[in-house]
Amino acid sequence: MGPCCVTAWRSAYGEGIPVAVRNRFHKNPHMTSALRHVTIDCSDAYVLASFWSEVLGLPLHEDDKPGDPEALIAGAGMLFVTVPEVKSQKNRIHFDLQPQDRTREEEVERLLTLGATLVDDRRKPDGTGWAVLADPEGNEFCVERSAGQRTAG
Question: What 3-state class would DSSP assign to 79?
Answer without folding.
Answer: strand
